[in-house]
Predict the 3D structure of the following.
Amino acid sequence: MAKRQILIAAIVCLLAAGAATSRKRNGGSAAAPTAAPFDYYLLTLSWAPDFCAAPGGNKDPRECGIGRKVGFVVHGLWPQSNTGRGPENCGSSPVSQAIIAKTLNYIPGESLIQHEWKAHGSCSGLSAEDYFAKVRQARDSVKIPANFTALAAPTSENTQQIVDQFAAANPAFPKAAFRATCTNGMLQEARICVDKSLVARACTAGAGSCPAPSMTILPPK
């Protein structure tokens, strides 16, 4: 009887080990990396017309193709510190094709998905599957102001106007949860601060902001 129990225990252990190996190979429920210290997330939405108009860089036609009319796309969900930048590059393995397929409607490019996991997601303490589920959930929780979706010509606004528009479109969020950044006088990103449960919260200074008195917003093409 004792030998039979030992044999059964050995079989169970082998099956468990095989299942764990299979999960790792599939990129699904593999063990999550160890979380680096951080306080909240910064959901960063890149304004595609600005990125696509900038010289150089890898311009994916899914984001920059004429007639695509792409506005805000997810740049990342970044672990952030209350006192400055958050941790980066905490070590990772490549993201599986299954996760990429679920995420392309949010981040329109495989290379950026892989980069965001390596640079930021790997510091979250989550598996790649759980991290990108959070990315999608965070983006789905934010409503884009109507004036951005209807923009037909370049316009000029200041940071506060953009923050006010996002706050009005998302009344359940505190106004302090929104930031806008710029490059060379152009709208670069909208940033939304959320806690680790994805509840909107006030940003800190490290979340960034556009220092220019106004910025140009290019229309989607």
User: Anything to note?
Assistant: Residues 1-30 have pLDDT under 50 and may be disordered. The chain is about 35% helix and 15% strand. Residues 6 and 12 are 10 Å apart (CA to CA). The longest strand covers residues 72-80.
